[in-house]
Amino acid sequence: MSAHPAESEALLTPSEVATLFRVDPKTVTRWAKAGKLSSIRTLGGHRRYRESEVRELLNGVPQPREGKA
């Protein structure tokens, strides 16, 4: 039996999350510290974010319209 049940779920780096939201990676880290987004720590101490949670949060954020002058 595995100690990590969510092993198959994709994890994103702060940079990948920042690209999706069009913000700086430090902003993503601040969101995690504020509890707006949960993070997982790697053995090296780096943060990783569950893709499903990020996508859910992203769907609640209004997207800028393309081609609007």
UniProtKB/TrEMBL annotation:
Residues 11-59 form the Helix-turn-helix domain. Gene3D superfamilies: 1.10.1660.10. SUPFAM superfamilies: Putative DNA-binding domain. It comes from the Bacteria. InterPro entries: BldC-like, DNA-bd_dom_put_sf, HTH_17, SinI_DNA-bd. This is BldC family transcriptional regulator. It comes from Cellulomonas chengniuliangii.
